[in-house]
Amino acid sequence: MKITGIKERAETAKQLYPYQEEYIRRIFDHLHENEKRENIVFQLPTGGGKTVIFSEISRKYIEEHQKKILILTHRIELLKQTANALEEAGIHCKLITSEVEEISDQQEYLCFLAMVETLNNRLKDDEEYLQDIDLVIVDEAHYNSFRKIFHYFRKAIILGVTATPLSSNQNLPLSQNYKKLIIGDSIKELVSKGYLSDATTYTYDVHLGGLKVGIDGDYTVSSLDRIYMHFDMHEKLLRAYKEKALGKKTLIFNSSVATSKSVEKFLSDQGVAIRHLDSTSNKQDRKEVLQWLKDTPDAIVTSVGILTTGFDEPTVECIILNRATRSLTLYHQMIGRGSRRLPTKNHFTVIDLGNNARRLGLWQDYIDWRDVFINPEKFLEHLYEREQQMEKGLIYDLPDMVKEQFPNTTDFDFDMEKVYYSLYNKGKKTLESLDISIENHYERIKANTTNYLDALPLINILQDEIQYRLNVYISCLSKATKNYFNYLLESYNEKLHSKLKAALPFSEE
Asked: Do residues 294 and 414 both lie within one domain?
């Protein structure tokens, strides 16, 4: 008897979007043309529907080839999410959990779904535990935990899917295991086509001195805790929420359970509706908290780790990054939780409390994933150089909340380095670049106020930009001391105050 492993799609099954159908076609074209049976990795942003796509690929592969496929995940949440998606797609699937020690009925199935650690343990004991797999689909393929299992499936084609085809270990690039990259639509393209919500990012400057990098390449939890457990950071978090997200359904991402619980207590004491979740939360608590999040318009859930993958709540309107990270993948995963689009939602807010946007770029920024896949070392080196520049105060993006204080200004561009070298190349005194910068700030403030007293708070909110410009100026010099920087900062502010005081009345009459 022929085993199809396929039944009718459920009525609740998601309908494929045109771009999803196009990528399924492209993937199958490669599978058909792939005489060498080389492994493929498919990239699509978080929220683009990777699970729906590989569920349909699974269905189509079984229909066309009548051969066995295996789908691998690395977390229990993804296992359950994928099982539901396969069921809705009408795929008769065998779930391999820690309780399944033998698969005596495996001849009755053409689709198998397993967590990588569980299956690895079974295969170490018995290499024939799972036989005749022709296609392996790896969800979140950037994780290196999958590599240890690949040698059991040398005759199969491996299809990895990920939003960020950048290995979690820079010493083990994805190109070692995958020979072809298929790139999906970019975040901006999915936003413009109406499939993802757009984001506005508000960056609150956080002093991150003392952070240490661990063996995984990201900041250590202990060094993050020393910053984010502090009372001042809790106050900054509360202020940012009230300024930019008050009343919005919000997810807060932290680096540790201790920080997340501390945030919950602090905000709760301030009368904010908030609940905490982490990987140690039992099944019932998790279910209750997520249902509360779904049902409560202004709910806030603070968490660590657990909601970055395998979680989907489209009504989330704000993401707060209450941590710093060097991981581009984690950065995209966290923000992506807010990107789901609804008929009543085409926009969401990101509050960055870890200087992440400066370090890794905005979520919507274009990334050449083909170059990342081929040259991951070069890409990571660029990120690390950017991080070093940021630590030296050489990277700064004027926050939207600052721009909002200057409604009569349309052009906020000013390139201190360009001004410096323009004077240098003309043989003029480069110190004049500071006078040009002061004039630029003077004109901006004067265009947005009518008296000196109202100008004072505008000067104050420009201090980060002033310090950034001075850092750039000093970097152009061969040598400069901290005392010289402080002297320049004091002189800059004195001149700016003097120009405004001379040009504006003291107060409104």
From this structure: no
Whose CA is closest to 259, among 304, 290, 195?
Answer: 304
Amino acid letter for position 165: P
Residue 269: inside a domain: yes
Alpha-helical segments (H) within 112-230: 116-125, 147-150, 187-192, 221-228
Last residue in a domain, options 126, 156, 186: 186
Q: Are 416 and 333 contained in the same domain?
A: no
CA distances, 340 to each of 82, 199, 274, 314, 344 (Å)? 18, 11, 22, 5, 11
Q: Are residues 101 and 215 in the same domain?
A: no
Calculate the CA dihedral of residues 15, 17, 161, 118 and round it to 10 degrees: -10
First to last CA, the chain: 94
* Residue 374 covered by a domain: no
Task: With residue 69 as reference, give the H or E element that holds it.
Answer: strand 68-73
- Alpha-helical (H) ranges within 296-415 are 328-336, 356-360, 369-374, 376-391, 400-403
Which residues contact residue 102 at a Cβ distance below 8 angstroms, ignoring those fewer than 6 apart?
A: 129
CATH classification of the domain holding 90? 3.40.50.300
Question: What is the pLDDT tens value at each position of the chain, 509 positions in all?
Answer: 355 567 766 666 678 899 999 999 999 998 888 877 889 999 999 889 888 898 899 989 988 889 999 998 887 777 777 878 888 878 888 888 777 777 777 788 888 888 888 888 888 888 888 888 999 999 988 887 888 889 899 889 999 999 999 886 777 788 888 999 999 999 999 999 999 999 999 988 788 877 888 888 888 999 999 999 999 999 999 999 999 999 999 999 999 999 999 999 999 999 999 999 988 888 888 889 889 999 999 999 999 977 767 677 889 999 999 999 988 999 999 999 999 999 999 999 999 999 898 888 899 999 999 998 988 888 877 777 777 666 666 667 788 888 999 999 999 999 998 999 999 899 999 999 999 999 999 999 999 999 999 999 999 999 989 988 998 898 888 667 888 889 999 999 999 999 999 999 998 76
Query: What is the number of other CB atoms lying within 10 angstroms of the CB of residue 107?
Result: 11
Q: Are 231 and 238 contacting, i.e. CB atoms less than 8 angstroms apart?
A: no
d(CA 143, CA 162): 9
| pTM reported for the whole predicted model | 0.77
Segments forming the whole domain that contains residue 207: 193-366
